[in-house]
Amino acid sequence: MSDASPPLETIAASLRRERARAGLSLTELAKRAGVAKSTLSQLESGAGNPSVETLWALGVALGVPFSRLVDPPQPRLTVIRAGHAPLVRSETSPFAAAMLSACPPGARRDLHLLTVDPGQARHADGHLPGTIEHVVVTAGAMRVGPAETPLDLDVGDYASFAADGPHLYEALAADTKAVLVMEHV
């Protein structure tokens, strides 16, 4: 996995902006997201090391896609070289997500590059209602989908599933990579 770190300044500014937009106090947002107030305070000040789980929980509590918290404004031409995208890692499994493209105004999708290694599966809570995930495996093999009925995918395989309920990602081979498109309905 790449050693790129999460975009802390972008996350801090995005959390402050979205919390103000929602009219929530630090205490109320922390409560709704199920994170410690001190953790949220650190993240808003640009400190800490946020996990995928923490950022997803904050996004759900704020009613915004994950991308709105981690993706800075993009120029019209964007190139992200392999291994240089900022990664946000899971705290419970060998899973990392790099935001490649956020949902622009009027569109309803985000594009991620996943890097997953064998070990504990990454279990995700449901995202915003109506969210659909589209996955294409580009290297290795992985188990993905609804927690109760995941599918095994090999290189080139595609699957889509409702992601507003519990779902999982698990590498079945070392150095597994996949493209994930999150469709926000």
Automatic annotation (TrEMBL):
It comes from the Bacteria. Keywords: DNA-binding. The keyword DNA-binding applies. GO terms for molecular function: DNA binding; DNA-binding transcription factor activity. Residues 15-69 form the HTH cro/C1-type domain. GO terms for cellular component: cytosol. InterPro entries: Cro/C1-type_HTH, Lambda_DNA-bd_dom_sf, RmlC-like_jellyroll, RmlC_Cupin_sf, TransReg_Diox_bact_type. This is Helix-turn-helix domain-containing protein. It comes from Allosaccharopolyspora coralli.
